[in-house]
Structures are given as structure tokens and as C-alpha cells.
Amino acid sequence: MTPIISEIFDLFARFGAEGYGEDLSLEKHMLQSAALAQSQGAAGPVVVAALLHDIGYFLHADKGAEVSIHRDFEHESLGAAWLSRAFGEDVTAPIALHVQAKRYLCAVEPGYFDLLSDASRISLALQGGVMNTDEVAAFAKHPHLEAALVLRRCDDLGKDVALHTRRVEDYENLMTASLR
Fold first, then answer.
1. Structural Rg of the chain based on CA atoms
2. Using one digit for the tens of pLDDT, what is the confidence trace for 137-146?
């Protein structure tokens, strides 16, 4: 097992049970997001991105910070930067963009905002709100737009308290295959 994957497993073990404003733990949410991406036939690196998209929250918890929907930790940037030590942009870019993807979808897709959970609506306001026309035009040209949107939709749906998923350890081979 590579050092970063060992660190990822350790972070899940230490902080996965933490809440983040939804009715399930971060670990369950992240595992559900990955399972959804996989069930939709997403490429391996996008499944890994879905699995690790909120790891920035674990990194904040590791520093003693409390995860809250009422503060924007920029978890997406922190997580993507931390993971970039070992993973390429095919994994880290969708993670870095998943918050912007929410802002984008709220701007371009009628009814999208109404599908967001209460916690996601609160965090949207802290994360810059709905994109304006210029932001939408710029984001639409991003080379990782499609992967970010897949991740975002899996993030939105991965909040089912009754859904059981695989364990994080079950993704070891897929994570290993996605390393740089």
C-alpha cells in the first residue's frame, strides 16, 4: 500500500464518523458519492474523485477545526492540493471544482437549486452563491467541466441515510490505479 493511500485510510478511520450538516456521516456520504459515480459508469479517476471529494474536511478536523456548514473552509481546494502530491488532475480537478459546479448548475439548470439539501443551500451562500453570467461562461470552458458535473451530481445524491455501501478499503485498487 502506498503512503498516501495509508494516510487516506487513516483519515477516514479518524474523522469519517464526523457530521457535516447532513443526516449522515462524511464517510457514508463520500462512499455513497463514489458508489453512485461507479454505478453511472464514470471513469476510475472520477470515482476516486467522488470518494475523496470532501477529504478537505478531514484535513480541517486533523487541525482541530470543527466542521460546520456555517463556515466556508474551502475544503475543495485544501483536499485537491493535499491529494495532488500523488494524484493527477483527472482526480484533483473535479474535487477542486465541485463547489463551483454547484454554483454553475444553480445558474444554468432550472430547478437545480430546489433539489439541494438545506445544508447545501446554506453552504452555497457562503461559497459565493449562484454564478453570474461571466462566471458561467468561464466555467463552461473548463477542461474538467464534465467530470466536475458528474462529481457534483453524485455529491448531491449521496445523502441517503439508509443506503449501505462498500468500505473505503474496497477502493484501494482503484485509488492505486489512479495514482500519478
1. 15
2. 999 999 999 9
Three-class secondary structure assignment of the chain: CCHHHHHHHHHHHHHCCCCCCCCCCHHHHHHHHHHHHHHCCCCHHHHHHHHHCCHHHHHHHHCCCCCCCCCCCCHHHHHHHHHCCCECHHHHHHHHHHHHHHHHHHHHCCCHHHHCCHHHHHHHHHCCCCCCHHHHHHHHCCCCHHHHHHHHHHHHHCCCCCCCCCCHHHHHHHHHHCEC
- What is the value of pTM for the model shown? 0.93
Residue bearing cell 463514489: 34
10-27 pLDDT, tens per residue? 999 999 998 878 899 999
